[in-house]
Amino acid sequence: MSPLVASALGVVLGVLATLLGLTVWRTRQQASSPDPAPLVSPALQTTIEHLRGAAALIGPHDEILAESHSAASSGVLRGNRLAHPEVLELVRDARREAEPGVLNIDVPTGLGLPGRRLAVRVSPLGDGLVLLVADDRSEALRIDETRRDFVANVTHELKTPIGALSLLAEAITDAADDPDAVRHFAGRMSTETERLNELISQIIALSRLQSSDPLLAAVPIELDEVLNAVLDQFREQAGSRRITLTRQRCPGAVIRGDRSQIEAALRNLVQNAIAYSDAGARVAISVRRVHDATGDWVEASVSDNGIGISDSDQPRVFERFFRVDYGRSRAHGGTGLGLSIVKHIAAAHGGTVSLWSRLGQGSTFTLRLPALRPDTDAEGTAA
Ligand code: ADP
User: Fold this and answer.
1) What is the pTM of this model?
2) Cα(185) to centroid of ligand 1, in Å?
3) Of 193, 134, 131, residue with least CA distance to 162
C-alpha cells in the first residue's frame, strides 16, 4: 500500500472512529459482550445516576446499564440484575409491548423492621432499553392508614355523646309534665354537651399541632412562670378533692417555643395527675435543668401517688384515644387525646415526654425540652 493510500485510509478510519465515538457509547458491561451493545450516552448515564429516587436503565438482556445512587439500597436490584421475578416480568412486558407498566411490590428490609412498599414504574425507551423508577410509598401509606384510623376513631368517639344527647332529648320529651325530671335530664344534657365540646376542641388542637411548626413563631418561655398559670387553674379542683399540689421551682429554666402549647402540655399532665389520683393524694411538680452528653435540657416532671399504669399499658397511653379505664377517663371528662397532644407538643419543640409508673403506686410524666442558652437568643427575657 502506498504511503498516500495508507494515510488516506488512516484519515477515513480516524473520522469514522471519531463519529462513532461521538454518537455511540457503550457501557463497560457491553464493551466485553459479544452481542451488539445498546447505546447509552454519558449524559443519560449521568442523569440516571443523579436521579433522587431509585432508578435504573435496563438493557435488552435484562442487565443493569446504569443506576441511580439510591437504587442499590432500594431492594429492586441485586448486583447487576433485577431482584424480583415480578419486576423482571414487568420490564420484559414493557419491552415486548412497547408500553409503560406499573407494579406495587413489598420489599423486606431484612432488619426486623416493617417492609417497604415500592411503586415500580417502567418505560420502554427503544433498542431494548427500559427505564425503571421505584418510588418508596411506605411513608405515604402509613400516613393514609393513620388518617383512616383517626377518622374511624373520631367518628366512634363522637357517636357516644351524640347518642347520649339524642336519648336525653327523648327523655325530656317523655317527661314534659315532670319539671324535676326535665331539670335532671337537662343537666345531663349540658354535661354531654361539655364533653362534646371538649372532644371537638382536642381534635382541633391535635390537627392544628400536626400542621403547624411552633418553632416558627417561638419565644423564650420560663417554665416556672407557665406553671404558675397552670397551677392556678387547678387549685380549686385539687382542693375540692383534698389533693395537695406541691412544686419545686427552678428560676432561669427557659426554653424556646409556643407558650400556649407548652401551657397546654403541662395542663394535660397536671389534670391527669389529679384525675387519676384518689382524694387526699399528692401531686408534685418540679422543674430542673439537666446537662448531659446530648445537650442542655429543661425538664418539668409531674408526679402523683395515684392509681399508676401497668407495664403493659405504659407504651399505649400516648396513643390517640387510648384509655386504660374508659369509665374513669369519661368521669373526669377525658377524651383519650391529652397525652397524644403532649407527645406532639414535646416532639414539635425538639423534646420528649417520658413516663415512669407503677400500678397502685403512682406515675411521673417528664416533659424534656431543649434549654434556651442565654447567649443564643437576643429577643430578651421570658415570655
Ligand atoms: P384522658 O383524656 O383519658 O385522660 P390521656 O391521653 O390524657 O386521656 O391519657 C390516656 C390514658 O392514660 C388515661 O385514660 C389513663 O388511663 C392513663 N393516664 C394518664 N395519666 C395518668 C396518670 N397520671 N395516672 C394514671 N393513669 C394515667
Assistant:
1) 0.70
2) 28
3) 193
